[in-house]
């Protein structure tokens, strides 16, 4: 059983808050590297779609170049 499931089910007695426990667990795992890799893969795959989500007033250097 995963440590998170054990925490939710009350099978783990932690002296710190659940937030601190989960943060420490995440830091010790390879979760951050996997999150970064997944985010970069998403951005690379969807890069042509992302400009439509820009906030008004933001400029995209690629769109503002004169041809």
What's this, in brief?
The protein is an all-alpha fold and 67 residues long.
Structure write-up:
With 67 residues, the chain is an all-alpha fold. The chain has a domain of 45 residues. The protein contains four helices and no strands. The model has no long low-confidence stretch (mean pLDDT 78).
List keywords for this structure.
54% helix; 67 residues; mainly alpha; 0% strand; single chain
Arithmetic mean of pLDDT: 78
Which spans of ≥5 residues are poorly predicted at pLDDT below 50? Answer: none
Pattern of helices and strands: HHHH
Number of helices: 4
DSSP strand count:
0
Supply the helix-strand structural class: mainly alpha
Distance between the termini: 58 Å
The major sheet is characterized as: none
Note the topology.
Blueprint: H1 3-8, H2 18-28, H3 31-45, H4 61-64
